[in-house]
Amino acid sequence: MNGRFTIGNAALFLVAVLLTACGGGGNNDENWARLRDFSLGPGALAAPNTTETLQVRLDYFVDFESNTHLPTFVLSGHLLADGETLISPDTSVGRLVTQFCGQQAYACGDPFTRLCSVTLGWVDPSKRRVVCDSMNPAIEVPPGNYRFVGSVCYTDSKGTRVCSSKSVPLVLG
Predict the structure, then answer these.
(1) What is residue 93's DSSP assignment?
(2) Which residues of the chain carry a pLDDT beneath 50?
(3) Could you confirm whether domain 31-172 is CATH 2.60.40.10?
(4) Cβ contacts of residue 171 below 8 Å, gap of 6+?
(5) Is 114 strand, coil or helix?
(6) pLDDT value at position 21?
């Protein structure tokens, strides 16, 4: 170089300054989601021994960042008997909630709330029927101690599925 500052050099310099000032394109393009908290209201409940319906409220508190209006993360909720381990938040076994979330048209709100109903079983009246949304089938379980496991999952820029989960107790009497 002869030490002269040309228009081409000036344009490159301006692009470099802008990239540095804007974060260099690093994490600004990354989508992420983290389950900050998950709660069950009004707490541990005994399901009725009559045909009366009991409402259970699930609240998901989620932090997320997205550079798109498309769904960027999925909320799920599973009912597990005490002692059982969630194999994967993507499994359909015991799943009662699935909700695709993101920004704009897919905004879920914070907290995202889902009401679930608990009644006597429809096949076996000694069991309890639990349903939370129309996207997933109801499940029928015997009375006992359970856990609702709330999860948030997203796929990072490398194609890796990243999930975070929390659980809360539920007694179905």
Answers:
(1) T
(2) 1, 5, 8-27, 44
(3) yes
(4) 44, 45, 46, 144, 145, 146
(5) strand
(6) 35
